[in-house]
Design goal:
By secondary structure, the chain is an all-alpha fold. It is built from four helices and no strands.
Length: 84
């Protein structure tokens, strides 16, 4: 017996993105990036204390480099943990 073509057709699941996990559209001025701004650093780090990628944060390359430096300074002083 031949199978009917209707049974073989299945709907493809569309990919859904978790909007709460992305920070697209976040506008951070270069002057706001500082190691003392712990609330901003916490928003841009994961639960393990890793800095999110540029794609996820929406930062420019120079801003991401300044954010990395600010995070390193905050960790060294003790404002941010190395690992949560």
């Amino acid at each position: 017996m031949a199978r009917s073509p209707i049974r073989n057709k299945r709907k493809k699941k569309s990919r859904r993105f978790n909007d709460s996990a992305k920070f697209r559209g976040m506008r951070i001025k270069m002057e706001e990036i500082d190691y003392k701004n712990v609330s901003l650093l916490q928003r841009l780090t994961s639960a393990q204390g890793k800095l999110f990628s540029r794609k996820r944060t929406g930062l420019s390359a120079p801003a991401q480099r300044r954010m990395t430096l600010a995070l390193k300074r905050a960790r060294f002083i003790g404002l941010m943990p190395y690992v949560s």
